[in-house]
Amino acid sequence: MKYGIGQKLTLTEDLGVKKFFKEEKEIIKAGTKMFVTASKECPRAIYKNEDVQLLQKDTKIEGYSAKGIAEWIYEYISKNLPLDDALEDYDIEIEQFKQVIVNALEQLDFYNSEGNIS
């Protein structure tokens, strides 16, 4: 598999994972979203709750997903600051906010070899 940094992945089926320091497996439901990190030596993805999922060892991390990075930034900021309230106060849609981030990243050439990926 080959992914771009920040690429959003969605589980297609339930996944049983064993967490460190816990005996039982936790079930992560199908439809759960995660984002590919920049780690090339130990490919992994991060969930919105900041848990980490290791990807297959032969996974290649190449290029970027400006859309995925923008969504991760939005999710992270809105979890830690009252971003949604601020956007609402200024009558700015969430998708408009994310698109501004995408535009900024694209100006910095955050693309993969095939152009931008979702």
Explain how this protein is built.
The relative contact order is 0.20. The chain contains three helices and eight strands. α1 packs across α3. The radius of gyration is 16 Å and the shape is globular. The model has no long low-confidence stretch (mean pLDDT 91). A four-stranded antiparallel sheet has the order 2-5-6-7. Strands 1-8 form a two-stranded parallel ribbon. It has two domains: 1-62, no CATH class; 65-111, no CATH class. β5 (33-36) and β6 form a beta hairpin. It is α+β, with helices and mostly antiparallel strands and 118 residues long. The two termini are 16 Å apart. 31% of the residues lie in helices and 26% in strands. The protein has helices spanning 66-80, 83-89, 94-107, and strands at residues 2-5, 8-10, 15-18, 25-28, 33-36, 44-47, 52-54, 60-64.
Give the DSSP E fraction (strand runs of 2 or more residues): 25-35%
Note the run of SSEs as H and E: EEEEEEEEHHH
Structural class label = alpha+beta
The largest beta-sheet arranges its strands as 2-5-6-7
**Could you say how many structural domains there are in total?**
2
Distance between the termini: 16 Å
Helix content: 25-40%
Oligomer: single chain
Distinct helical segment count: 3
Q: What gyration radius follows from the Cα positions, in whole Å?
A: 16 Å
Number of strands: 8
Biggest sheet: strands, sense, closure?
A: 4 strands, antiparallel
Question: Which word captures the global form?
Answer: globular
